[in-house]
Amino acid sequence: MLWSDPENEPPEELRDTQEMLRRLGVLMALAMVVAMIVIGVR
User: What's the pTM value of the predicted model, to 2 decimals?
Assistant: First the structure.
């Protein structure tokens, strides 16, 4: 990287989107675990 390169800081909306996707991924993982447990119990 050159010293003249712009700062590698994503815009606000992109950061919000990334945060939302991260939360969605965690929720999906939890839902999969719960589904596996429910399927295993039956």
Answer: 0.61
